[in-house]
Amino acid sequence: MINFLLSRKLDIVLLLLTLAWALYMKQAVDLEQATQVIVDFELAGSLEKAQSILNRIGPAGKQALVYSIYLDFVFLALYSTALALLYIRAAGSFRDLPRLFFLGFLLAGLQWLAGAMDVLENRAMLYTLAGDPSAWYPYLAMIFARIKFGILLLSFPYLLFSLLYWILFQVFSAGKAK
User: How far apart are CA 155 and CA 68, in angstroms?
Assistant: First the structure.
């Protein structure tokens, strides 16, 4: 069962599903400059800024934003799982370096934490979009978004380093084989 879960085929299928869903989201949301509006709304931080964004995009934009958030619930499950499997795969490059091997598994788990932060962020944005007058929801959405983006950005160098390590290992192993 574990071999199936970590198989390359599953990695590829999950990656393709994630990319396909991201493309679908981009096409499905009828909101001019949708990505920027969504990020602005995620990071608004105050009810005033959130309301300003909603005023700028109007009722149709608000409806598209709500739809986008609901689509994001599927996307966050896909991207967090795809990234977690990618970090587990990358950790395999460091079997002979226990600390880096462990770090890969830790970072894999953090991808699901990023997904959980995305869920909480989406819920806070939906409360704001529903007209809840609490100033806390835009602030909470911003906090959860920053944690999510922080995890994703701070984890990424590990992938680059593991790729470089793997390439160097392949080059030097091929040199010794001759």
Answer: 26
Q: What is the DSSP letter of 46?
A: S
Q: How many CB atoms lie within 10 A of CB 167?
A: 11
Q: Are 103 and 158 in contact (CB under 8 A)?
A: yes
Neighbours of 105 (CB within 10 A): 14
User: How far is the CA of 178 from the CAs of 28, 117, 171, in angstroms?
Assistant: 54, 50, 11
Q: Report how far residue 5's alpha carbon sits from residue 27's, in angstroms, rounded to the nearest whole number.
A: 30
| Nearest-angstrom CA–CA distance, 157 and 17 | 24
CA atoms within 13 A on the CB side of 113: 13
> Using one digit for the tens of pLDDT, what is the confidence trace for 107-164?
999 999 999 999 999 999 999 999 887 889 999 999 999 999 999 999 999 999 998 9
